[in-house]
Design goal:
This protein has 164 residues and is mainly alpha-helical. The chain folds into 2 domains: 98 residues, RNA polymerase sigma factor, region 2, helix turn helix motif (Rna Polymerase Sigma Factor, Chain: A, Orthogonal Bundle), CATH 1.10.1740.10; 63 residues, Orthogonal Bundle (Arc Repressor Mutant, subunit A). Helix content is 65%, strand content 0%. The longest helix has 25 residues. The N and C termini lie far apart (53 Å).
């Protein structure tokens, strides 16, 4: 791939890596698994980037790839992730360290969200990222009405989990 494509990818990933970290946090429960999933999502984004035409925002496309990667890997019974060696220096990506302590105050919410199914997790994640229902629906491949109905049900589920 050309250096212009690589430069563009690295810049987009650098600007949006926090969304990938948040997805990793939803679908993993320790640092090693988090790093493995982050690496695998980065690889899948890089492989798919030449096909990204800009029909949607980079973040919408990245959400779709990242969520599909996480769901596919973590739906398997085994929680191990087979990764391909990927040298961050080769692609000039400076991976920021993810600080779990900074988000200690939302730990209970994450624990509650962990009890949801994969699609519900994705929906909650995007909702918490202030995505509108149109973008949520587009990313998840459902209707906007369906996204709203699912979110209302999820809110009820989370209330029961957080306030038994």
């Amino acid at each position: 791939m050309g250096t212009q494509l690589e430069t563009s990818f690295v810049q987009q990933l650098q600007e949006n890596q926090n969304l990938i970290h948040k997805i990793c946090r939803l679908y993993t429960n320790n640092d090693d698994a988090h790093k493995d999933l982050f690496q695998e999502i980065t690889i899948q984004l890089w492989k798919a980037y030449p096909k990204f035409r800009g029909d949607s925002k980079f973040t919408t496309w990245a959400y779709r790839v990242a969520l599909n990667t996480a769901i596919t890997l973590y739906r398997k019974k085994s929680k191990t992730v087979n990764t391909v060696e990927f040298d961050n220096k080769l692609h000039k990506i400076n991976q920021e360290e993810y600080n779990y302590e900074e988000e200690e105050h939302i730990k209970l919410l994450y624990q509650a969200v962990q009890q949801l199914n994969d699609i519900e997790k994705a929906l909650v994640f995007m909702y918490l990222e202030d995505k509108d229902y149109n973008e949520i629906a587009e990313t998840l491949g459902i209707t906007e009405v369906n996204a709203r109905v699912k979110m209302n049900r999820i809110k009820g589920k989370l209330k029961k989990i957080l306030n038994p």
